[in-house]
Amino acid sequence: MTRFVITLLVWTLISPGNGSWGGGTSWPTHTACRKEGLEVLYQSCDPLQDFGFSVDQCAKHLKPNLNIRVGIILREDIRELYLDIVLISKGASVFNYSYPICEVDLPKFSFCGRKKGEQLYYAGPMNNPGFEIYEGKYQVLLELYNEKRTTLACANATVICS
Amino acid sequence: MAPAVSCCFLALLLSASCEVVTSTEQMCIEKEAKTIYNCENLGLSEIPDTLPNTTEFLEFSFNFLPTVQDTTFSQLLNLTFLDLTRCQINWIHENAFQSHPQLSTLVLTGNPLIFVAETALNGPRSLKHLFLIQTGISSLEFIPAHNLKNLESLHLGGNYISSIKFPKDFPTGNLKVLDFQNNAIHYLSREDMDSLRPATNLSLNFNGNDIRGIEPGTFKSTVFQSLNFGGTVNLSVIFRGLHNSTIQSLWLGTYQDAEDQELSPIMFEGLCEMSVESMNLQNHYFSNLSLTTFQCFTHLQELDLTATHLHELPPGIKGMNLLKKLVLNVNSFDQLCQINAASFPSLTHLYIKGNRHKLQLGVGCLEKLENLQTLDLSHNNIEASDCCNLQLKNLPHLKSLNLSYNEPLSLQNEAFKACPQLELLDLARTSLAVKATQSPFQNLHFLQVLNLSYCSLDTSNQHLLAGLPNLRHLNLQGNRFKDGNIPKTSPFQMVSTLEILVLSSCDLSSIDQEAFHSLGNVSHIDLSHNSLTSSSISALSWFKGTYLNLATNSIRIIPAHLLPILSQQKIIRLSHNPLDCTCSNIHFLTWYKENVQKLKDFEEIRCANPPSLQGVQLSDVTLSCGMTAAGIFFLTVFLFLSAALLIYTVKFFLRWKYQHL
After folding, report:
1. In degrees, to the nearest 5, what angle opens at C-alpha A11 toward C-alphas A6 and A12?
2. Which residue of A has its CA nearest to B284?
3. Taking the CB of residue B422, how many other CB atoms lie within 10 A of it?
4. B208 reaches A (C-beta below 8 A)
5. Max CA-CA distance within chain B?
6. Confidence class of residue B622 from pLDDT cuts 50, 70 and 90?
7. What does the buried/exposed string (b/e) look like for B332-360 if buried means 16 or more CB atoms within 10 Å of the residue's CB?
8. Do A110 and B329 touch (CB under 8 A)?
């Protein structure tokens, strides 16, 4: 009987915690691409929401100007939008980069200037340079934020090249 | 059985109480007492009772309100701003805002609206801004027009609208901003525009609509504040359609992800038949860039050619005499002379930043721009061994010069003699080589703002800042001082007129007591992100009523004799210091409690010591400290005296008692 009571007590104490979003839950890991020895996995690190992302090509010899698809709900205006990339290999940060995507005097992409609450779907070029990916496993942290330094999207990506 | 039932009951009770706890955790944030509240992302399905009825500004986005009716906001009668972005609203019923006479802004972005009742927007006396972005609207008839006569901005982006024709009774007279971004508008007719005739000085946005045709005369004799046709492929359609119109600002840029079509001189012919003050053509390609390309640009005052893949502007462009502002950012010039500046004699503002190639300044490339007031040459990889008199030859009226984010520049004495009227000079993140005892900024009599952050300066040069009699704002962030110490004689002693001084991230560990003695006018000093201890505070005794930033330093204990120096300042930042919360810092801790109103971001002022209080906010610390030596002395004397008095009293009492026996 006591065991039953304890089980019930434990259940009642734990169950509301499971229901609340943002607390301990994390978003599922998605596959952005998997082909020809290259695998790119990502997970949203924004506690508020997940987002969708895929790359049309997946190869060790990364081609310039890849086409990507992104689907996300904007939680802030994106008159200004910046991307921070941190590349981690074997636990050490090897590459840090910040890139403006939308600026007031240069909105590079057609989605610049969209408003908070809009659902954004972008399918188009990324305007990246081409480069070679060496064998290994890399962690990539990506963050999109606006002029108020509010996060629009955050991703923990894993790139496995074999 | 009975115990099991009671257990279940107990469990239910417990789970219910747990839920109450979690929901009280998710409270609206009060941003300004009684008036501004943020309830975003809380998954609320009604307005919380905790919001006071004085609430004026309510951010309620990302909640759950499938139906909005007259009772939904009935307790908040003073609302002026209501953001209901993405609240999954399907229905807005009759008189939903009947009791909100003050409401002026209503945001309904991202709601899957099925129906908005005819009287849904009745009530507000002066509804000025209405956001209906991505609400699935396909016809303008969907918007109840009854109470919109005061509307100043209407945002209809991201819908399925294909015609801008408003219903007959729609009041457009006060509209200033009408935003149709990312809809399906392909054709504009005269009839469409007729419904907008009552509006004056309208800003109309068609960005992201593929406009394929405009009926001739549609925009005839109409005056616009701004027109945006961003991303439109065929510009000749636009120019022909805008025949005979007057437009202050015309935005015709395109994007990296948009279809490319080269701009040919014929496309711009329509520009001769209209009046445009300012035009933007960002991201386009010009085919056969020649003099004929610009023959209809003669009346322009501002031209933005950002990222238009230019290698040069052809020499001899005629008729651009009126051009005041030219933006050539993110192009591919090799030399500044390739812009052939002589074609734009009236230019007052010139922006060439973020050039894709390393930009050579050349000699006197801008010398024909006698009226130039603002010049931006930042982010260009400019490198110069003897800057900047030959490069900036004959710019007598230049007031603002931006050379930040470039490669190393070597500056001699009087390096900016060519532009003596300079008021603002920005050299941030550009390494400056200045020989010892030289004064590169000499004779800049009007210079007020000088940004030298991260310039790798030699701060031991006493003459570095000589000859700046009007300098008010000096930024020396990220420059180093010898041994991390600002000595008694430092370069900024030459600039006694300073009002704002930034010395953050300078790796400072000490400041001489006399270092700032000539800076009597300073009203703002930033010493954050250094390794300063409280011993440097005495150097601040020269300042009174200043904004003082000491955040992110190494201040532990502030002794009593330094507290008056802090007391005489207006605002102090002390966050992120390893402050001591033991009794050895009791004077400061007491002072802190009495001066909380002076301290900014006090929630980030935390204890580092003792370990038990590590990370605790100073405002939460109450210390009861042991007695001091003097206290112990007086206490001993007091106890001794009381004992003596007691003995004497007992003795007196006994004697009195036995005498009466």
Report:
1. 100
2. A108
3. 24
4. yes
5. 136
6. confident
7. ebeebbbbebebbeebbbbbbbbbeeebb
8. no
Q: Which of A106, A116, A117 sits opposite B306 (nearest CB)?
A: A106
pLDDT at B143: 96
Q: Which residues contact B537 (CB under 8 A, 6 or more apart)?
A: B558, B562, B565, B566
pLDDT confidence tier of residue B259, bands split at 50, 70 and 90: confident
Residue entry with tokens 């990370």: B615
Burial group, residue B508, by CB count within 10 angstroms (0-12, 13-18, 19+)? buried
Residue with tokens 């115990």: B3
How is residue B263 written in tokens?
């701009």
In whole angstroms, give the CA distance from residue B558 to residue B534. 6
The residue of B12, B15, B206 whose CB has the most chain A CBs within 10 angstroms, and thus the best one to mutate to test that interface, is B15
Residue-averaged pLDDT of chain B: 91
Rounded Cα distance, B359 and B335, in Å: 6
Kindly state the percentage of chain A with pLDDT values over 90.
Answer: 63
| Among candidates A73, A105, A108 on the partner chain, residue whose Cβ is nearest the Cβ of B255 | A108
At A162, the amino acid letter reads S
> Which residue of chain B has the CA closest to A127?
B256
CA atoms of B133 and B434, how far apart (whole Å)? 55
Q: Cβ contacts (< 8 Å) between B41 and chain A: which residues?
A: 48
Q: What are φ and ψ of residue B122, in 5° steps?
A: -75, 150
Q: How far is A133 from chain B (nearest CA, A)?
A: 25
Beginning with the edge strand found earlier in the chain, give each strand of the sheet holding B409-411 in spatial order.
Answer: B384-387, B409-411, B432-434
Residues of chain B with C-beta less than 8 angstroms from the C-beta of A151:
none
B-chain CB neighbours of A7 within 8 Å are: none
Gap between the Cα atoms of B388 and B393, Å rounded: 8
Q: Do A113 and B207 touch (CB under 8 A)?
A: yes
Here the contacts of B615-619 (C-beta below 8 Å, separation 24 or greater) are B616/B581, B618/B579, B618/B581, B618/B589, B618/B592, B619/B592, B619/B593
8 A C-beta contact, residue B522 and residue B492? no
Question: What pLDDT band is residue B212 in, cutting at 50, 70 and 90?
Answer: very high
By the 8 A CB rule, do B132 and B108 touch?
yes
Provide the pLDDT confidence category of residue A131 given band limits of 50, 70 and 90: confident
Cβ-based contacts of B7 with chain A (< 8 Å)? 4-5, 8
For A66-70, what is the mean pLDDT?
94
Taking CB atoms and an 8 Å cutoff, what residues of chain B touch A112?
255
Which residue carries 């005819």 as its tokens? B118
Question: Per-residue confidence at B18, pLDDT binned at 50, 70, 90?
Answer: very low
Is A4 in Cβ contact with B7 (below 8 Å)? yes
3-state secondary structure of B193: helix
Question: CA B450 to CA B469: how far, in whole Å?
Answer: 12
Q: From the list A8, A12, A106, which residue is nearest B330 (CB)?
A: A106
Between A and B, how many CB-CB pairs are < 8 A?
Answer: 93
In whole angstroms, what is the distance from residue B106 CA to residue B634 CA?
Answer: 69
Q: What is the CA radius of gyration of chain B?
A: 35
Whether residue B157 and residue A118 make contact (CB cut-off 8 A), yes or no, is yes
Q: Is the ipTM of this complex over 0.95?
A: no
- Most B CBs within 10 Å: which of A115, A120, A121, A126, as the mutation test of the B interface? A115
From chain B, the residues in CB contact with A119 under 8 A are 110, 134
Q: How high is the pLDDT of residue A24? A: 56
Please name the residue of chain B whose CA is at the shortest distance from the CA of residue A8. Answer: B11
A16 and B15 within 8 Å at the Cβ level: the answer is: yes
- The two three-digit tokens of residue B638, written as one number: 């007091």
**Could you count the other beta carbons within 10 Å of the beta carbon of residue B106?**
22
